[in-house]
Amino acid sequence: MKILMSLTPAVDPNLLVGMDTWDDAAVYRLTPDLALVQTVDIITPVVDDPFVFGQIAAANALSDVYAMGGRPLTAMNILAVEACVDPSIPREILRGAEAKIKESGAVVVGGHSVDDQELKFGLSVTGLVHPDKILRNSLARPGDVLILTKPIGTGIIATAIKGGVVSPEALEKAIKSMTALNREASEAALDFGAHAATDITGFGLIGHAFEIVRFGKIKARIFAGKVPILPGVKDLIKEGMVPGGTKRNQDHFGSQVRVDSGVSEEQKLILFDPQTSGGLLIAISVESSSKLIEKLGKYLAVIVGDIREGKGELEVISGG
Ligand code: CO
Ligand code: CO
């Protein structure tokens, strides 16, 4: 998430990506062919198992580096926990995070903990990127397609976990998705010359797609019927398992988006569902998109929309 920002935008010729385009991470040039990628992301538990929660929080924090086309280098843990909690809980969270950081090729170099009634965990991640190969959110081009690399619905699943109504199968698939790194998707996007990318997190598919059109000054269409959804999500909506963040996203982005009358209420709730450790949304030319899909597989790279000439419009259509 990228909510909290300083009130005065930094001005520095080496600040290649700052706060003005709501991108996933800041990018600061060190030399003509090397730049730092910096991000911080902290979340509350989305699953009961502390080890898995640590994995998810780490994959989620690393994702902002991948969304910029970067390679993670170092990570620092940030843990808010009540002093009286069973020490095995923070230990398992840190162990889960460390496993994911190791998988990414980065190293944990430190951290900080604070006494807090509500458990929270996240990481600050630093990575490297070539200044000419940054995957910004703002450079999608008319004619591009939009590819999504993970199914959505994790906000609904997390709500159902808290409500104790999630099925073991739905839980397993959601955990598999949330703990998966976006590394392969990021590397493939770079290899095949993607024009723009961002990751899908708290603002949901619609909110993050809106950043791509708003800062890219183009128009995007989302094909509601093509968007991959985690198993169990539709049934859980019928049981009322909709997180509070969905309403906030609808209030915030709803008026900016034109939604076709053929799009169902259920589809809308899923499109606005806040995600944890979601996939990348990649804008890439039609020709290159087939190579990307071939590389990642058609289940992990799905065309969910396209880009046209425009001035920042987002449209959700039922077909595609
Ligand atoms: Co973020
Ligand atoms: Co992000």
CATH topology of the largest domain: Phosphoribosyl-aminoimidazole Synthetase, Chain A, domain 2
Largest sheet: 7 strands, mixed
The fraction of residues in strands falls at 25-35%
Q: What gross morphology would you assign?
A: globular
Number of domains: 2
User: How would you classify the helix and strand content by structural class?
Assistant: alpha+beta
Strand ordering within the main sheet: 8-11-7-12-9-13-10
Mean pLDDT score: 96
CATH second-level architecture of the largest domain:
Alpha-Beta Complex
Estimated helix fraction? 25-40%
| Computed CA radius of gyration, to the nearest angstrom | 19 Å
Distance from first to last alpha carbon: 29 Å
* Number of β-strand runs: 13
Low-confidence runs of at least 5 consecutive residues = none
Q: Count of DSSP helices?
A: 10
Regarding quaternary structure, what we see is single chain
- Are any ligands bound, and if so which? cobalt (II) ion
**Which homologous superfamily in CATH is the superfamily of the largest domain?**
PurM-like C-terminal domain
Text of the CATH class of the largest domain: Alpha Beta
Order of helices and strands: EEEHEHEEEHHHEHEHHEHEHEE
Descriptive key words:
60s Ribosomal Protein L30, Chain: A, Phosphoribosyl-aminoimidazole Synthetase, Chain A, domain 2, 2 domains, 6-stranded mixed β-sheet, 13 strands
What can you tell me about this protein's structure?
The structure is a single chain. By secondary structure, the protein is of the alpha+beta class. It folds into 2 domains: 2-133, PurM-like, N-terminal domain (60s Ribosomal Protein L30, Chain: A, 2-Layer Sandwich); 144-317, PurM-like C-terminal domain (Phosphoribosyl-aminoimidazole Synthetase, Chain A, domain 2, Alpha-Beta Complex), CATH 3.90.650. 35% of the residues lie in helices and 26% in strands. It is built from 10 helices and 13 strands. It has a 7-stranded mixed β-sheet with strand order 8-11-7-12-9-13-10, sandwiched between helices. A hairpin with a 2-residue loop joins strand 2 (26-31) and strand 3. The longest helix is centred in the first third of the chain and has 18 residues, at 50-67. It binds cobalt (II) ion (CO) (2 copies).
